[in-house]
Amino acid sequence: MTIYQNLIAGEWTGADAVENINPSDTKEVVGLYASGSAADTKNAIAAAKAAFPAWSRSGIWERHVILKKAGDEIMARKDELGALLAREEGKTLPEAIGETIRASQIFEFFAGEALRLAGEVVPSVRPNIGVEITREPLGVIGIITPWNFPIAIPAWKIAPALCYGNTIVFKPAELVPGCSWAIVDILHRAGLPKGVLNLVMGKGSIVGQTMLDSPDLAGITFTGSVGTGKRVAVSSIEHNRKIQLEMGGKNPMVILDDADLSVAVEAAANSAFFSTGQRCTASSRLIVTEGIHDRFVAAMTEKLKTLNVDHALKTGTHIGPVVDERQLKTDTDYIEIGKKEGAKLAFGGELIARDTPGFYLQPTLFTEATNQMRISREEIFGPVASVIRVKDYEEALAVANDTPFGLSSGIATTSLKHATHFKRNAEAGMVMVNLPTAGVDFHVPFGGRKGSSYGSREQGKYAAEFFTTVKTAYTLA
After folding, report:
1. Has domain 3-247+452-476 been given CATH number 3.30.1240.10?
2. Any stretches that span the bilayer, and where are they (predicted)?
């Protein structure tokens, strides 16, 4: 089998490799991918540092052309790359192709942004003095991405970093190196100068830690667990490094008595269980008012019976496997915790056997949960959701906000009054009305509050806040 190597200083390198296993069929090896060392990581950082002066002053048309080429190739190969994504992560093929299309759109967007770079010219309060305000590249950026969106999240970090003239050391999640390798290969062939984009696949304890220890990274943008995010933050203080952290979520979906029941069920099922619940924006707390509670639970249970859990590439699959054995154990451990805490297992919770060996788990719905239970406080990151009964809208809002996280929040209602109030008072970075809490556009800001996020927003024009630094220049006329 060919080893897909790391890219360092424009050269493919690396002999040590690990198997990329298909969670839908654990007998299938998707590919062999390099496992980088601390020395590899240091070399990548040095290459990015050496490439920064020239790339940071490169022309906007050069950046535009490279990003546009990448976006066009990703779109042209959407079926192939979508299948690769489904095989290595377990997302269903339609979801995987959709994510691939989104990655293409992100590169297209930032190809356009490269031509829209601008500053300000403002008058000084002093006579005969001009003031220019410009944005300049930050420097060498460390990019660390998770396994649950293996092409979209790398795209929305790499594209703006390059657009604004930064150089990159990129470490993808060890579980899903395939899509990341493909993006880097596409950009490399699109004409990026040597050292501008460096890929170092491997263990977080080696590659990631070496990145954290380096004084030469001007910024790190990280998406992953709360624990690792805190380590990124602490280590970055020592180096006076800019950080952007996207971490956990325990997102609420409020269902009010006046909700359209079919809309509420579709939004809740999508929020909680699609992509196998492995989304930081997934809604695992379904907060339901008394008047609709029993009807909602009955309708939700019937909906779950129709969802097919199977191989990610199989036609008719609604939910693919859990990503790996460790995550499956986490999910099943939390199911047992929920039972012991006194929640009622209303549906699912069982492992499933399919034609191929994989990490298959029924979507799991608890009822009679409280917001104090661990299953309601801690991020599970699997197809597990809890229904919390509340009296009215006021209690629903209070319970929705009673969480250490604040990424996404949703409400199902036909009341303009309640929808408007919820949008204003939900303590989350993103609010959805009669829509799933997961699923966002690529051209608008993404991010949360409280323990979910730290630093400036990702995506759209707001990406400039992280990937650039502001300079103010004065000139005597």
Report:
1. no
2. none
